[in-house]
Write a structure and sequence with these properties.
Distance between the termini: 52 Å
Radius of gyration: 23 Å
Helix content: over 70%
Low-confidence stretches: 1-6
Length: 246
């Protein structure tokens, strides 16, 4: 009985070790990023501040709001900083249970996923946020002044950027589904018109109600869909050749 339980015990010990290492890495990333938390927040606030009226600024409405906002910024930045190490710990834990042909796909998909996620973040930061703020702050008048708080801006911008980061994972997800045979490039091509419709609906929800902003967001997504079709054709599961009976 003990011999049968030993592999499970060893498995749990390995999981515990990987979790501890991951928590230590995130903690170290948090401690490092906290020393630069104000600078990181200032960079994050640039898209808003550029669109605000002259002399406009962010405020905090409670005594501890600035402190806790910087804490959240440090934690998020530390998590991002430690993510390569955390992903490696996940990989090291699950790798022994994978087949050889499964292992060779993990690293490329992790790298591709990281690349497209970062690409989505950059697109949201440099394109989508400025477009959105230009429209939203246009409602200001001589009697109505925009005075966003630090906490509200951090929550809004992080959710917005994460949405674009996840949205840009589209090609990776579709190629993965094509690789395991759930979809194929021909099916994706046939469903193009429905995908374009959903993309424009999504763009209309995320952007101000003007056609230029919607097209500005929709075009890259359409490009990602076309890229997904191409990559699915190259890396998708190949049909098994039918063997003729002699």
């Amino acid at each position: 009985m003990d011999e049968k339980k030993l592999p499970l015990t060893a498995h749990l010990q390995e999981l515990r070790r990987r979790l501890i290492l991951s928590f230590v890495a995130v903690g170290a990333g948090f401690a490092l990023c906290y020393t630069f938390a104000q600078t990181i927040f200032d960079i994050l606030a640039v898209p808003l501040l550029k669109m605000m009226p002259t002399g406009g600024s962010l405020i905090f409405t409670s005594v501890a709001e600035a402190f806790f906002t910087y804490m959240k910024v440090a934690f998020i930045a530390g998590l991002i900083l430690a993510s390569p190490f955390v992903l490696y710990q996940i990989w090291a834990f699950v790798a022994p249970g994978l087949y050889r042909h499964e292992k060779k796909y993990v690293v490329p998909f992790v790298l591709a996923g990281s690349f497209f996620f970062a690409l989505g973040i950059f697109f949201g930061y440099y394109v989508a946020l400025p477009v959105g703020f230009r429209f939203l702050l246009g409602f200001a008048t001589d009697f109505i002044k925009p005075m966003p708080s630090m906490k509200e801006y951090l929550s809004f911008s992080i959710k917005f950027l994460l949405a674009f980061g996840l949205m840009f994972e589209f090609p990776v997800v579709l190629v993965l589904l094509a690789r395991i045979g759930v979809v194929d490039s021909k099916t994706l091509a046939k469903q193009r018109k429905y995908a374009i419709l959903l993309i424009f609906i999504f763009a209309a929800v995320l952007t101000p109600p003007d056609i230029i902003s919607q097209v500005l967001v929709a075009l890259p997504l359409m490009g990602l869909y076309e890229l997904s079709i191409l990559l699915s054709k190259i890396f998708g599961k190949k049909p098994t050749p039918v063997q003729s009976s002699s």
